[in-house]
Design goal:
Layout (H helix, E strand, L loop, with lengths): L1 H22 L12 H11 L2 H16 L12 H11 L3 H14 L4 H13 L1
Helix pairs in contact: 2-3, 3-4, 4-5, 5-6
Length: 122
């Protein structure tokens, strides 16, 4: 009886280990954010030319190098990047980025169209 018990335990142990290790596998994130969190924090904290330049570079990196599982630019990036470009005096490029946000995420149209409408009044 004991011999049979140990034999079953020896057979079940590797199976349980495999099941446990498979269940702990990590999934690839939906989006690659790169240094966005840190750079946007520095921009909001300092708002100097260096932090603006760094944040713009981060936006460009996020837009050009999407390697995550969705391979799409994260929601809000085009809108935020466009707004930053507009604040930097690049209204045409900024407006194009806002329109790209609406193309990629149609649910943002209500918010983004208000920004574009206000730009048209200036």
């Amino acid at each position: 009886m004991k011999k049979n018990y140990y034999r079953r335990a020896v057979l079940l142990l590797p199976i349980l280990l495999v099941i446990t290790s498979i269940s702990c596998a990590s999934n690839k994130p939906l989006y690659d954010w790169y240094d966005y969190q840190e750079d946007s924090y520095h921009y909001l904290k300092n708002a100097d030319e260096k932090s603006v330049k760094t944040l713009i570079e981060t936006y460009e990196k996020i837009i050009s190098k999407q390697n995550a599982s969705r391979a799409a630019v994260p929601p809000g990036i085009y809108a935020d990047y466009g707004y930053l470009l507009i604040r930097s005096g690049k209204t045409k490029e900024g407006t194009e980025m806002l329109k790209k946000e609406v193309e990629l995420y149609p649910e943002s149209e209500v918010f983004v169209s208000q920004i574009i409408k206000r730009l048209g009044k200036k």
